[in-house]
Write a structure and sequence with these properties.
255 residues; alpha/beta; Double Stranded RNA Binding Domain; 2 domains; DUF5781
Length: 255
Amino acid sequence: MDVRVLGAATPDPFLSAADLFETEYDLEWPVRVRVRDDPDERTWAGHYEDYHVLNISRQAATSVMARELALHEFAHMARYEESHPSHVQSTEEALFLALPGKSVERRKLIHCYQIANHMKDIYADDITLSLTSATKLLTFLESQLAAAVADKPSGEADGPSRRRLTAASDPEMTAVNAAFALALVERHGLAGRDHPLYDFAGLAADDAPGIDVEAFKRRFTSLADDPTKSDYRKALVDVTRAYADPPRGSGPAAD
């Protein structure tokens, strides 16, 4: 792997992540790491004609999660290079297929992109969690979900491919984010049901009674390891429709 760090940050966590990644995987294209000043940018991967870019905020690049965040983005790059359906499927196409002729709130459309990113993250983390311990990831997920439940700040979701669990402040999206976090835990057997994530997910579900957290968790957890393009498109269309245009009367069953 050819990794070059651009910006005032130590290259150590990125080179360490590359060394770990190369024990099982490799990237054909070189990677340019761009360290940015905006702390809200977090991390995201960009793909160009013959190279990848790992964008990361200076705050994230100097945090204890720097190596794990880099490893996660390398996994996205690997999925892109292998043309995995999750990383080549157009979200716009899925929206068109899921919501033909529907009038949908802008915030809901923005959230649909975040849900599509969660599905990409599931497949990236299938790689990430095969290479490293989940300890830091669990702490990250717990802190992000706890902050979202406690603060519910206003604002819009991040754009595509941003590594940020609490990208949306909307209680409904926070509930879906909680489902995503639990799906990672259960897909990889990372923790038991006594983990604090389950408590925070319960609070998020209480704040958004119209969202069936268990149903979204099942959708994320049950994503096929190696789906066909058609199967993945259907999964993305189904989850998009379930969030943006649920059937009347749908939602969690009453206790």
